[in-house]
Amino acid sequence: MIGDAEILHREFELLQQELADKHRQLGMKASGQWLESLENRSKRLSGQLWGEKYTEQLVNGRKPGKFPPVKMIEKWIYDKGITPEGIKISSLAFLIARKIAEEGTRYFKEGGTDLVDAVITPQRIQSIIDKVSEFHINSFLSDVTGVFKQMAA
What we know:
Blueprint: H1 4-25, H2 33-37, E1 39-40, E2 49-50, H3 55-60, H4 70-80, H5 89-103, H6 106-109, H7 122-152
Antiparallel strand pairs: 1-2
């Protein structure tokens, strides 16, 4: 018989897969590090999905202000397979960093993305709660029925 912990684990595996699918659908993949970092840490009646710290930037974008790390932008350029003409990658990375510092990222200017909100919805959370609750109710009814059968015997 499948237990509540297994139900929860399976549901979080589905969420993990759907987040990865949404990430690909939005064209966010560069190095693949974000996809590889997604980890289902659900146990017993605690469900958790873990991933890279920069998930916040993928969801909300980066607001203007401080310069982002130029080396990380260089890595992003390499990972995306961008080959600039007439300019070194380090110079391009600096220009991108400066523009982000001045204006923020495209995701920020567009009001963020639905990377997480499209997958982890209130309806989806309620559905998971209902599935786990249903298991507990069925288990409780089975236990109560078993007690009454023992008393009748």
